[in-house]
Specification:
The chain is mostly helical. The longest helix is centred in the first third of the chain and has 31 residues.
Length: about 260
């Protein structure tokens, strides 16, 4: 292979420099401002068999599995967007790359803004109330978006609107799902968080793989997958809630802190 000298004026190398700078900033913030973590629990056994028993006890907790799966299904719509939006906007709608970059930033504002709004809402409403209110809204948005995509080829602004609203829903759902699925655990909280993250990233990777096989000449598969993942999350919540005898909730501000 021929190794070529990088032209630092090129877009690729400039983006690499931006990533390096962002990583350096994040590391500096973590080192200088992040408070110290809780001390390690010396009673935790890290041998394989006790660890597997811990994971089994976590996975058999109805509240954990209900909210981790429901939240992960809803969160999968984000990965549908991230994986499929370049094809949708650059090829299907023929947007300029710079326009797509600005659009990506705009939609990110919706996601981040909703997560910040959630911090205010959890001061007045429980995480469960917010989760059970927003998840059906996301499912309805997914159904409407899929129906529109099946009937006509909507203009770009319609697609952008539905994606923006869906990402805003996810911004509110994700922190509350995390708070609720971890709430039953006073011990093994780190293990429960690891299992929840594993479930979320596994579902996200499956959805991302499906996006790679979709027809890029139609909006319907993209809209349909976003709708299906949202409806699946709502269905898991309705079914799983029946097995939760008593819902355990943490302090209201926990959801906003995640």
């Amino acid at each position: 292979y021929e190794i070529k000298e990088c032209d630092w004026s090129s877009d690729v190398c400039s983006s690499d420099l931006c990533l390096v700078a962002l990583v350096a900033i994040v590391m500096a913030v973590v080192i200088l401002f992040l408070p110290p973590a809780r001390p390690a629990d010396p009673t935790v056994d890290l041998r394989p068999v006790p660890m597997l028993k811990t994971f089994y006890s976590i996975l058999t907790e109805p509240q954990f599995i209900t909210y981790s799966l429901a939240g992960s299904m809803a969160f999968a719509a984000l990965f549908t967007y991230v994986s499929g939006s370049p094809v949708i906007f650059l090829e299907l709608y023929n947007l300029e790359p710079r326009t797509y970059g600005l659009l990506f930033a705009l939609i990110s504002v919706g996601f981040i803004g909703a997560s910040q709004l959630n911090i205010l809402l959890v001061r007045h409403f429980s995480s469960d109330k917010i989760f059970r209110t927003v998840l059906p809204i996301q499912a309805i948005l997914g159904i409407i978006f899929a129906v529109i995509a099946a009937m006509v080829h909507p203009p770009a602004w319609v697609t952008i609107l539905f994606i923006f609203l869906t990402m805003a829903c996810i911004g509110m759902l994700n922190p509350n799902a995390s708070a609720l699925c971890l709430a039953p655990f006073e011990r093994n909280l780190g293990s429960a968080s690891a299992v929840a993250g594993c479930i979320q990233i596994t579902i996200a990777s499956i959805v991302s793989s499906i996006v790679g096989t979709m027809d890029s000449t139609s909006l319907l598969p993209f809209a349909g997958l976003m709708g299906v993942s949202s409806i699946a999350g709502f269905s898991v919540l309705k079914i799983g809630s029946r097995s939760i005898k008593k819902l355990v909730t943490g302090a209201p501000t926990e959801a906003g802190a995640h």
